[in-house]
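Exercise 7.
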Amino acid sequence: MPLTLLGQHSPLASASEQLKVLEQPNPHLSFQAQLDRVGLSPLCSTGITIFQINVGKLCNQTCRHCHVDAGPDRSETMSLETAEHCMNALARTDIPTVDITGGAPELNPHFRWLVEQSHRLGRHITDRCNLSVLLLPSQCDLGVFLAQHQVEIIASLPSYQASQTDAQRGEGIFEKSLAALRLLNRLGYGRPDSGLVLNLVYNPVGAFLPPKQEAIETQFKKELRTKHGIEFNRLYTITNMPISRFLEFLIESGNYEQYMTRLVHAFNPAAAAGVMCRHTLSVGWDGRLYDCDFNQMLELPVDHGAPAHIRDFDPAQLHHRRIVTRNHCYGCTAGSGSSCGGTVT
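Solution. The predicted structure, written as tokens, is:
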């Protein structure tokens, strides 16, 4: 089957179109065959330790690599009723971490309520922040709010160079990101012994795998400290997933087959054994349940008899459910592996 573009202007291309591209017949590409080969099939959850809530696709940025297809024109947003279902479900468990993501999650009208309720339940909270949202007039007190609730901030910064960051995230975003990082530093984020954790996320700007996490972290810390006076705790490297806008980029640039071959050849059984879906449950903005945020964007809900919506949450069934996999999963198992918390091995 020849590769075709997802559409002339297709940041909103359907999940089925993306899966059609990813699942083209190729005996050397089957992720399921890889799991069978290394004795990891069926891949099952080892118990949920991260309760991930995607509150919607509204964002003040439109990034070229975004697997959520988020942007200012998106209307999908989690309702208060669904947010309440999330907190009711969380209260029935001892899941230690709540990971709130989007879009720009802070733009959801119920974001702060979710933070307050999760904090009241004694859970560790992480916020997937694009940094520039902190500078919006409507969010002038956001940094203080996050610090008061000791929310760990995980912020995307593709490069310590303006040209590369702006190429991926939009013109002027690098300078806005620096301004937001300085604001967070003034609040104590990223400072030793403050208890306020600021971690950065690095995605490659292009069709290649990220470098070793420790090496690029050292480089980022040196550049941001010496040139901009900015401190942070850790840097996570995340492989760009071959879905949504990045998949379209791969096809349009003629890099799709080469990139997928690179992922397949870099398959690491140790990384596959530790993939984040084995300890994460992802809740979509509409309450549907997924094994990870990437499956969510491909509309691949939990399966094999597990409840499919947060209102039907059943810890016993979900803690050890069978994971839904497709060929995009190679993105999480290449090299040192890739997860929302950086490398796996």
